[in-house]
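Continuing the batch. This is chain 6 of the set; chains 1 through 5 are on the previous pages. Same settings as before, nothing changed between runs. Recording input and output for traceability.
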Amino acid sequence: MTPSDALPGRIAVVARRDASPEPERPGFDPAGEYYECYLPVLGPASWLAYRYLAAKVTQEPALVDPAELAREIGLNPSLARSAPLGAAFARLEAFGLLRWESPAVCAVQRSVPALSNRLAKRLPIEARARHFRIVGGLQP
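Output for chain 6:
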């Protein structure tokens, strides 16, 4: 999360330059079917925030108003670190989908990697089956 106690009033969103998926692990479009595998892992607020930010990523930085983003995805528009959007950003950061390059610039991964086997084994039954159908391999 940003070093301050609150999110800035405007965030520049850029694509992560170092976040290409590993060749043996495919990357998936955040708007594609694989989102249903990430949803139980990240939670709905984090996943919606990620999809919103990933859709904004272009060659040029996109300016995002975090309070407006929170409203768009049904969260309290508070910019406090402890507010729902701040918690969602922290979760995205923990999973490597977002990285703060400066207090007002966040780098967002354009695609999501396949979940690790450890996480996939913990998914609910339908999401686990979907993961193994999409990614391939035998279901544990």
